[in-house]
Design goal:
The protein is mostly helical. Helices cover 75% and strands 4% of the residues. Strands 1-2 form a two-stranded antiparallel ribbon.
């Protein structure tokens, strides 16, 4: 009898292929900046708004609220990227820590299981996965702090861990939104991930908080953390 493929391995393979296709243009746009990064953000925002509108069955109130949320995240990303000298690395740091938090949460939570984090919002998420997200984001913070030659890595690590928490909250908010409208995914644009919203839900929340942190400090984040 032919051996059935492992669903976990198949899922991982699809995710890796999707990431290998999506990451290069995103990283390139962030590197080259205007007008490529602005164009990327505009297109992504339009797709997110369409997915939100369709998932909410055209509910105007939900669409307007979601549009404001998406706009804040988009403005935050543009502001972070526009920072002199540190704009590109700030975007790379933010993207990488959110992706790492999501990846660590997914695989650690899937392998170790444990008590559910918020079963009414996202039945598969666990507390150990949540801690994995914090770990993943913290590791990115450590590497970036070392790369920048900081003598004290803890401020950047702590803020990175905080953004890891925020990204998971953003993920839960999107999960709750989908469950409210009885939808599994926000779309089918990205194989293995669903819609674009399913892939960047944590990034949206983290971008807003990161931007607010920079605005409140009055300085480029990576120069004072």
């Amino acid at each position: 009898m032919a051996q059935q493929p492992d669903p976990k391995s198949t899922d991982l393979g699809v995710r890796l292929v999707s990431a290998s296709v999506l990451l290069p243009p995103v990283l390139a746009a962030a590197f080259f900046g205007p007008p490529y990064f602005e164009t990327l953000i505009f297109i992504a925002s339009a797709i997110l708004l369409f997915e939100l509108y369709r998932t909410s069955n055209g509910k105007i109130g939900w669409t307007i609220g979601g549009a404001i949320y998406i706009a804040l995240a988009a403005l935050g990303l543009l502001a972070l990227r526009s920072a002199a000298d540190q704009g590109t690395i700030t975007i790379y740091w933010l993207f990488t820590l959110v992706w790492s938090a999501d990846t660590f949460a997914y695989f650690i939570g899937r392998e170790l299981g444990g008590p559910k984090l918020a079963p009414k919002l996202s039945p598969k998420k666990t507390w150990i996965g949540f801690l994995g997200a914090i770990l993943g984001a913290s590791i990115v913070g450590i590497f970036v702090a070392i790369y920048l030659g900081k003598t004290n890595v803890w401020p950047l690590v702590t803020f990175s861990a905080t953004l890891g928490v925020v990204s998971q909250i953003g993920d839960l908010l999107e999960s709750g939104f989908k469950r409210h409208f009885h939808k599994k995914d926000m779309g089918s644009l990205i194989p293995g991930h669903g819609g674009l919203f399913d892939r960047v839900d944590g990034l949206l929340a983290a971008s807003i908080v990161c931007w607010l942190g920079q605005e409140l400090s009055g300085k480029v984040l990576l120069t004072w953390l």
